[in-house]
UniProtKB/TrEMBL annotation:
Pfam families: CTE_SPB4, DEAD, Helicase_C
Function: RNA helicase.
One GO cellular component term noted in the UniProt record for this chain: small-subunit processome
GO molecular function ontology, one term from the record: RNA binding
UniProt protein name: ATP-dependent RNA helicase
SMART domains cross-referenced by the UniProt entry: DEXDc (SM00487), DUF4217 (SM01178), HELICc (SM00490)
Comp. bias intervals (Acidic residues): 514-523, 701-712
Originating species: Dactylellina haptotyla (strain CBS 200.50) (Nematode-trapping fungus)
Length: 794
């Protein structure tokens, strides 16, 4: 028998068996899903002691195991079984009690049970109030979802929506901040939320407050009403209006610590000290000096204070690494600082409330609140950055004498146990002289100090709780001196309606800064001021715009010269465009020049050969043709302009012109909106149909495929990150901590590998098949080419 020949009938026998095994496999999977669904519905939460007791997919169980999560926390124990049953949840549990897993596990399971594929589009949306928190949630998702085949993306602001459009359309899970998500939904037709199965709001009370109202309403409007919704926070909202906005269905309120004696973690020691405003920085400095071997997080109420204290204390060398973080920094800097603080053993981070919520910095020893938080909820979240997950921690609140009574009453009212401590006077060091010295030497820092002063004053002024915050009672002059300033800067108080608006505005809208400061740094502002003072003639020269380098006289000369030439060459002139000297037209065209009058209103000046040539190009001439007029035809076939003038008398009869105008505009706007909606939904419908087709094709293809790597998981796309974070100009690779090096799944496919890498892979693949001949350099000479050809033929 010839080598390799097959036994008669071996092929037909083999094929059906393989097909049979595939069908069996699929059947087994279906059964598995059904069992999972059934066990979830019947699951008795009282029997739960380990994650392995939960009816979870093998992929999630493996992810949890790999991340060393074994025993669920209280909130996880209560919330996960309910969420797996498909219930809407309002989850409330103290800071650091493991709420993230309580919603991420259900997210993965819901999609798994729906057999979600990339073609199904967006299945889960997780909203976070800050970028840093979104990144952190995304990291946890990647860890526990590493064995799943979903694609996941991070949408937290940045530039260039265009680049992201397509990628985003293929994501199954998105972790986002509200503003950026809204922007995408409005401008990106590839992003479709019609299929969304589960919506999660982390720090739900914050997301539902006024600052995010528009964005959340826009997001919720476009997603299906029958999706599942999970809301989590340490300070949960029970406000019916808020919940109605999200159309929750009979939500289960899961509050594990409601009967606890305190609203803050049990292992957190909380203290306050009474300090006059002008002594705050002395005490802060003394505290830092006494704790240089600790990890300290210090909260201020505004960006400018954070910067001032950071810049000055740095110069004074406290003997502990200093960091600062606020919302006005570039995104990459923010990421870097967050990572630095997370990884450091001892350092001191000055921050605004951007880090107050949700962030899980490991092992913070102290949380110091130099400025009184705006309310008790903010207090609870700030101190919650320490004493997380069974660790202990300490917190100190600085209170001005005028704030003591009001704030203590508020804290007591919300079950926050706090004790007064006194500062040892002999340990207190004054920094006023040093600050004065720094401000005197460096005008930029002095300027920053002034801004810090006004920002602080403003933050007190806009607070609603008048029993705590009263600007008039504060010793502002002494406060300014304590910052090293020669005198108290004038505070521009807002006038009239503005004040009311500001007072009633949600905190999300109240920038923690001078609104007039804008986003610009002090250096830029100072530069601007300097620029105003000294402007050289060169500055002025470069500032001039729309200037012609030739004088008018010279331009005229050229024109005349060309005209002479053209007389001789008339036979070359462009025909058929009403060409000629239009000086007598009587409009504002220069006399003696040639213009081409195309049917539109703008005439083209022909002042050079190039222009004459241009006139032969139909495309170029389009610009001068103006816009066509759209006509509509009546039943008799008569053409009419779309808007025709009506009889003046009749118009007057119909009422006031301005009113009519308003009405007309409103009607037209409505018409445009309707047309726009129709267009959008048509486009989406088409996309949907396309996706369905793609999915059907994929399923067909999968019929015959088994990835055969024996890992028990099908191939496909592993939980792949896509990141849209607020990059400023740096390349995506530079974001620390987002690109995982070795992902454990064997058959993985990165969505966004760069072209070079793809080329390399292709080459490698082809090489295996013996198809590629490698050359060190591109063929230049004939010899090179010959060598290449020979290689190819071989
Ligand atoms: P919260 O959102 O409630 O403030 P997180 O979800 O950020 O809390 O979790 C706080 C810390 O607890 C994190 O470091 C997390 O890794 C850890 N953690 C959460 N759940 C568990 C668990 N079941 N076992 C061990 N550690 C956990
Ligand atoms: Mg959290």
């Amino acid at each position: 028998m010839a080598k390799g020949a097959k036994l008669p009938g071996s092929q037909p026998q083999y094929k059906p068996r393989r097909k049979e095994s595939r069908t069996l496999k699929r059947k087994r999977e279906e059964e598995e899903l059904e069992t999972l669904q059934k066990s979830a519905l019947e699951f008795d939460a009282s029997t739960l002691s380990q994650f392995s007791d939960l009816p979870l997919s093998r992929a999630t169980a493996a992810g949890l195991d790999k991340s060393h999560f074994k025993v669920p926390t209280d909130i996880q124990r209560k919330a996960i079984p309910l969420a797996l049953k498909g219930r809407d949840i309002l989850g409330a549990a103290k800071t650091g009690s493991g709420k993230t897993l309580a919603f991420l596990i259900p997210v993965l399971e819901v999609l798994y049970r729906h057999k979600w594929t990339p073609e199904d589009g967006l299945g889960a949306l997780i909203i976070s109030p800050t970028r840093e928190l979104a990144i952190q949630i995304f990291e946890v998702l990647r860890k526990i979802g590493q064995r799943h085949s979903f694609s996941a993306g991070l949408v937290i602001g940045g530039k260039n929506l265009q680049d992201e459009r397509e990628r985003l359309g293929r994501m199954n899970i998105l972790v986002c901040t509200p503003g950026r998500m809204k922007q995408h939904l409005e401008q990106n037709p590839d992003l479709d939320t019609y299929n969304l199965q589960i919506l999660v709001l982390d720090e739900a009370d914050r997301i539902l407050d006024m600052g995010f109202k528009d964005a959340i309403d826009a997001i919720v409007q476009g997603i299906p009403k029958d999706r599942q919704t999970l809301l989590f926070s340490a300070t949960q909202t029970k406000n019916v209006n808020d919940l109605a906005r999200l159309s929750l269905k009979d939500p289960e309120y899961v509050a594990v610590h409601e009967s606890a004696t305190s609203a803050t973690p049990g292992k957190l020691q909380q203290h306050y000290i009474i300090t006059p405003l002008p002594e705050k920085l002395d005490i802060l400095w003394s505290f830092i000096r006494a704790n240089v071997k600790s990890k300290i997080l210090v909260f201020f109420s505004s960006t400018k204070q954070v910067r001032f204290v950071y810049e000055t204390f740095r110069q004074m060398q406290p003997g502990i690494p200093l960091l600062h973080l606020h919302g006005k920094q570039k995104q990459t800097a923010r990421l870097e600082i967050t990572a630095n603080f997370s990884n450091s053993k001892n350092s001191c981070l000055f921050a605004t409330d951007v880090v107050a919520r949700g962030l899980d910095f490991p092992a913070v020893d102290w949380v110091i609140q130099v400025d009184c938080p705006e309310d008790v909820d903010t207090y609870i979240h700030r101190v919650g950055r320490t004493a997380r997950y069974e660790r202990d921690g300490r917190a100190v609140l600085f209170l001005c004498p005028t704030e003591e009574k009001g704030m203590l009453a508020r804290l007591q009212g919300k079950k926050v146990p706090i004790e007064k401590i006194n500062v040892k006077q002999n340990k207190k060091q004054s920094v006023q002289n040093q600050l004065q010295g720094i401000c005197f030497k460096d005008p930029e820092i002095k300027y920053l100090g002034q801004k810090a002063f006004t920002s602080y004053s403003r933050s007190v002024y806009i607070r609603k709780d008048r029993e705590i915050f009263d600007l008039e009672k504060l010793p502002l002059q002494e406060f300014a001196t304590s910052l090293g300033l020669p005198g108290a800067p004038r505070i521009k108080f807002l006038k009239g309606d503005d004040v009311k608006q500001r007072k009633n505005a949600p905190r999300g809208l109240l920038k923690d800064d001078d609104s007039s400061d804008g986003d610009e740094s002090v250096e830029e502002e100072m530069k601007k001021e300097k620029k105003k003072e000294v402007r050289t003639k060169y500055d002025r020269m470069f500032e001039r715009q729309n200037q012609n380098i030739f004088t008018e006289h010279y331009t005229e000369m050229i024109r005349h010269g060309e005209e002479e030439d053209e007389k001789d060459e008339d036979f070359l002139a462009v025909k058929g465009h009403g060409y000629g000297s239009d000086a007598e037209d009587g409009d504002d065209k220069a006399p003696g020049l040639k213009y081409i009058q195309v049917h539109g209103k703008d005439a083209m000046l022909v002042d050079s050969k190039r222009r004459e040539k241009l006139a032969t190009s139909k495309k170029a001439m389009l610009k001068y043709k103006g816009k066509g007029t759209k006509l509509v035809f009546d039943e008799e076939g008569e053409a009419h302009a779309i808007y025709e003038f009506e009889d003046e008398e009749e118009f007057k009869k119909a009422g006031d012109a301005e009113e009519q105008r308003g009405k007309f505009l409103a009607e037209e706007a409505k018409r445009v909106t309707v047309a726009d909606e129709e267009d959008k939904s048509l486009a989406k419908e088409k996309k949907r149909a396309k996706k369905e087709r793609q999915k059907a094709r994929l399923l067909e293809d999968m019929e015959g495929e088994d990835d055969g790597d024996g890992d028990g998981f099908d191939g496909g796309v592993p939980l792949v990150p896509y990141v849209d974070y607020g990059r400023d100009d740096e390349s995506e690779d530079e974001a620390p901590g987002l690109v995982e090096e070795d992902r454990p799944i064997k058959k993985q496919k990165k969505w966004f590998e760069d072209d070079e890498e793809e080329e390399r892979k292709k080459a490698k693949k082809a090489k295996k098949k013996g198809k590629v001949v490698e050359m060190q350099e591109a063929p230049e000479t004939l010899d090179d080419l010959e060598a290449l050809a020979a290689g190819l033929l071989a």
